[in-house]
Every structure is written in structure tokens, then in C-alpha cells.
Amino acid sequence: SYDTFTWVTGKYDYVNAPALKRLLVAGAILKPFPQEVLEACYNAANEIYADLSKTNPHFAKMYTSLTAFRAESVAWMQVAELSYDTFMMRMRTKT
Fold this sequence. Notes:
mainly alpha; 2 domains; 87% helix; extended
């Protein structure tokens, strides 16, 4: 449900920042995933989605809708969301 999604997302965002801070204080070194790892995960996920779409009509319907939405919204996400998120990260590191 919407309420569950909102609660889980809020909880996730709320607890991860302090958890990350504890890791950094303990000496953890943060590194982004290598591009090859991200691409392998992306490709593996798409294979799973294709298999699920073949065997589960409900998943196929949802996934078809999701991929159409992604295709239609990519320009908006690049212009509005990505630029805003990048701006906010730069501003937060200035203070």
C-alpha cells in the first residue's frame, strides 16, 4: 500500500544516514561500485525480468508499464531530477 511504501522509504532514509556515519567513524572507506559491476548487475536484473515476464502475466503487465514510463520520463529525469540532485549534493558539501 501507499502508506507502507511511504513508511518503509522514510525509515530507510532516516536510518541509513546515521548508519553510514557510524561506518565512516569506524574507518570505513567509501568507494562507488565499479562500472563493470553495475553493468553486470543491470544485465542480470534484465535477464531475470525477461524470464519473469515469460512466466508471470501480472509481472509482465507491470514491467511493460514500468519500462514505458522509464522511456517516456528519461529526459525529465536527466534535466530536472539529476541536475537538482547533483546541485543539492554540491551545496551540501560546501557547508
